[in-house]
Amino acid sequence: MNLAEKLIISRPLYISDSDDPKCGYCKGQKDNDNKFATEGWRDLHKDDLDTIKFQSTTVGFHTELITAEMYDKLCNLGYRRSGNFIYKTDMLRNCCRLYTIRTNKTYLKMSKELKMCLRKFKKNITSAEFKPKSHYSDWVEELCDYQSNSSTFKTVFEPALFSEEKFQLYVKYQESIHHDEGNTRDQFESFLCNSPFSEEEIMGTSEEWEQLNNWFNLKSDDVILRNGPVHECYYHNGKLIAVAVLDFFPSGISSVYFIWDPDYSKWSLGKVSALREIAILSKINRPYYYLGYYIEDCPKMNYKAKYGGEILDVCNNKYIPLSKVSPMLKNGELFVGTNQPTGALRQEIDTLSTEKVNFEENFHNAADEIYGPNGVAFETSNQSAQLLKRYGLNYDVTKTRDIYIHNDNNDKTDPHSRSRIHRFPNFVPGLVPLTEILEYFENGTIREVNRNTMIFDTRFHSIRVLKDLELENSDTKTAICDVIRLIGLNNTKNAIVII
Ligand SMILES: [Zn+2]
């Protein structure tokens, strides 16, 4: 067994924070009316809107070790990482809907704004003597030509390690752009340098870096080697002016964060970096550029639509072009696409479907049919929770269909209203439903974790192979089932779970 290929994770966490302003996106400022995931929930609560406490939720786990390949799979299940923490939100209970968005050169339409950005980039990095070609086959060739003819601008790809110069740029950027004071070296390191990848993947080989640093000279059939975290440092006349924090993995490049020198605000470096990364992607022959989360009703996050692309329907594990799905995301609602006359609940989390979505017959948003106040999810998951007790699992069986916490006394100082770690609700869009977990127990599929999944027991500081899940105590069983709900059965077989 090769430990470096294992996924080492904490038991899954469900953190909810009903102190509204904690949501980093709407800051609690959105009208309560617009925080509901579906029309059905909005209707149900139209008369007691003021007593509902909306939540900002996080579903995730800490990870000590992950391969770039596994992280790729998790990104395609809607997760992102912040340092070593891998997370997504509860798309139903959260105040905002965060959709994974990815794009590429085919999806990108060069708008006036982006063309202007490219022209400005040329002006900023090339000299007056530079003669552009009379004809470029596309904007990627154009961008490569500017960059290779610049004597003042260059970027360097390197391991995602700390340097004083990067840290100073980060502090300047956070203070000036986000009015965020008091940034420490520790915070910078845990956010933008630390990652859960192995030492080999973090450091890479000299061949990998050399190849990546010559990306604009790659031939169309060159296979790029780099996988893992990357800092791309932008220099102008030898001075560090920006750092793109990126993750490279088999299906593409994921943008983690981008910091830039506020003195260069006229350069539109944010847009330049997105264009450059899409250009790099096409030169290294990988399919997608992951821009993080798209939030339809959040100006800070919906600018991503200008690069085109597709968003992930976490319930069906399918990507749908933004152009097709936009009308169904109005007011940032939950979207669950289906061609079924009524929504089906079964979610395939282990295998990513490449099947094309047929938009013609019956295609509609089934979020309310499944997760609404009268949707099928409540009944089926509650029944399954009841039946799973037979197998020693302790999921709650609840009588109330409501998913919201009511704040009747309106006491903002209530300590319980702050950030809390909860048990997982019985149904969360994008997690393996309890009906499927029940099926695993009934048909014996659950035994596939035996002799595959490993447990790091913090009470004894020992690591052991999970011999027989059914013989474990209820707490361990539930923790393993929660892992399956989050990442699927196959990925769980490869995991070492810290309990
Ligand atoms: Zn929000």
UniProtKB/TrEMBL annotation:
Keywords recorded for this protein, A-Z: Acyltransferase, Transferase
Entry's Gene Ontology molecular function annotations: transferase activity
The N-end aminoacyl transferase N-terminal domain, residue ranges: 22-115
The keyword Hydrolase belongs to this UniProt entry's keyword annotation: no
InterPro entries with a match to the protein in the record: Acyl_CoA_acyltransferase (IPR016181), N-end_Aminoacyl_Trfase (IPR030700), N-end_Aminoacyl_Trfase_C (IPR007472), N-end_Aminoacyl_Trfase_N (IPR007471)
Record-annotated membrane-spanning stretches: none
Annotated family: Belongs to the R-transferase family.
Protein name: arginyltransferase
Source taxonomy: Eukaryota, Fungi, Dikarya, Ascomycota, Saccharomycotina
Gene: ATE1
